[in-house]
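Table S4 entry, succinate dehydrogenase.
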Amino acid sequence: MVANTESRSLTVKIKRYNPESDAPPRWEEFRVDADPMDRVLDVLQNVKWEQDETLGLRRSCAHGVCGSDAMRINGTNGLACKILVKNLKSDTITVEPILGLPVIKDLIVDMKPFFDHYKSVLPFLMNDDPAPTTERLQSPEQRARFDDSTKCILCACCTTACPPFWGDQNYVGPAAIVNAHRFIFDSRDHGAAERLDILNDTEGVWRCRTVFNCTSACPRDIKVTQTIQEVKRAMLTGSIDFEGAAE
């Protein structure tokens, strides 16, 4: 990390869990000097590289694209690589794993249940028409219809910020519904009815309680709650508007 005269001394509280020795998890504190433009990920890497190499965390691109470093930071879901030290309102950073998924070690959770829900909504183009000699064409309005839900990076921030998911991990969750929406409202796709049938279930869209935690947690600013409501409306009306959001 780059130090300057504006560096802050931070207390970093990390929820630790080693399945070989810890039951239950424990909290551990570290002191880190951080530059205002450092990110929480930089702070955690300082801990791992300079103080305790046993700290377990995920990271990859470090630019908010891969979504691998999702965690709870001061009680709110976010990507550690996107949150700047200067934007923290405290000199204490509390870091813990995202909720609702099994903890493997420290800040690393088992993402398999999350991706099982994602796969359950058939998140791929379904079209049995003969393949055209060029791409399948859409109008700009048709493409714009589902643009917001294409931004999902599968970080799980929205799903693990959802109170219904905390209480029932069988709930498919906001991220899966967002990715179903991406294809349900794609004019080239023919699988909308099948996806809507999958989501028309007690563990599907009707488990949503419109808390808006998912929208607040999304690092890509997807209108997650609106997306879920549009899927619900498509079920209730039996129609899909391919060229404009439902009013």
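The mean pLDDT is 94.
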